[in-house]
Amino acid sequence: MSETAPFIIYGFATTHDALVGERTLIASDVEHRTIPTPKTLGALCGIALRVPIGVAADAESALIAAGAPWTARVETNDRIS
User: Fold this and answer.
1) The pTM is what?
2) Max CA pair span of the chain
3) Strand, coil or helix: 41
4) What phi and psi values does residue 55 have, to the nearest 5 degrees?
5) 54 CB-near residues (< 8 Å, 6+ apart)
6) Distance between CA atoms of 31 and 16, rounded to whole angstroms?
7) pLDDT value, residue 31
């Protein structure tokens, strides 16, 4: 059985927005993983960003400052990988 942990997943309206978000988190040195958009976020582009819940505030600050706001946000438990 895999170990799980709480994460925040950010979904974006367009692939461009998701890629800007990814570059922003990389430049801000925020731990994240690029994942396929989960169905729970609805019909968005196919790219989402998952961050550990402990760095969500840093991720959100960086995304807002860069003008790369997310369209949807969900808290979930996911496998640690």
Assistant:
1) 0.90
2) 39
3) helix
4) -115, 10
5) none
6) 20
7) 96
What φ, ψ does residue 2 adopt, rounded to 5°? -80, 145
Identify residue 51 by its one-letter amino acid code: V
Which residue's entry shows tokens 């997943």? 9
Which amino acid belongs to residue 31? E
The amino acid at residue 15 is T
Distance of CA 5 to the CA centre of its chain: 15
List the structure tokens of 42: 């609805």
Q: From CA 78, how far away is CA 50, in angstroms rounded?
A: 9
CB 12 within 8 A of CB 24: no
pLDDT band at 46 (very low <50, low <70, confident <90, very high): confident
Helix (H, G, I), strand (E, B) or coil at 21: helix
Using pLDDT thresholds of 50, 70 and 90, give the confidence band for residue 81.
Answer: low
Rounded distance between C-alpha atoms, residue 71 and residue 81, angstroms: 25
